[in-house]
Amino acid sequence: MDAGREAIMIVDDDAGYRFAMRELFGRVGLRTLEASTGLEALASARRERPGGVLLDVHLPGMTGYEVCRELRDAYGDALPIVFVTGRRVEAADRIAGLYVGADDYLIKPVNSDELIARVRRMLARSRADSSTCLPGLTNRESEVLRLLAEGLDQEAIAHSLVISPNTVATHIQRILPKLGVRNRTQAVVHAYREGLVEHGRKAGRPLA
Predict the structure, then answer these.
(1) Are residues 86 and 153 in the same domain?
(2) Total domain count, the chain
(3) Top-confidence residue, 191 or 155
(4) What does the pLDDT average to over 31-39?
(5) 90 and 162: one domain?
(6) Residue 5, pLDDT score
(7) Could you say which DSSP state residue 196 is in?
């Protein structure tokens, strides 16, 4: 297997299930990451952005819903996230999962061929979406920088991305040292220079 390719993260507290998924995906040449808790999943995602996430709802310490929301805040809509669970199977559970940002909600057991097909589609989408990121930035950080360069202020960016203004501020604080710049104006100049924003699309002046 090519260790450089995107991995599917399996987040489930059932070691037997994780082993079965690792074997299943390994047979078709897909790499996996594994986590048994929500905190492990978030730490792993910080070390390596997965190509997609298969996420159980019931996890020790924090729910799958909370993990999904954290991953969405970090990576935006470009990271495919699918709930795969056998314990929260009612319509209200599926609606809650989609509401917090999941792309799909599957009930165990899932047909192996269907799951592989869904995972391959997830990886293809992840690769396509990652092409819109600046090197060194996450998808969400690239989105924040693009909107900042288009002239949106912190409140407007928060509204556009459905996150809090404090989360926007945190992303900006992370963006500046990653780009090697001292302020938001320099970050905006960098975004234009790297082609993240087309000239003529800016809606206002950058914030100092």
Answers:
(1) no
(2) 2
(3) 155
(4) 96
(5) no
(6) 66
(7) S
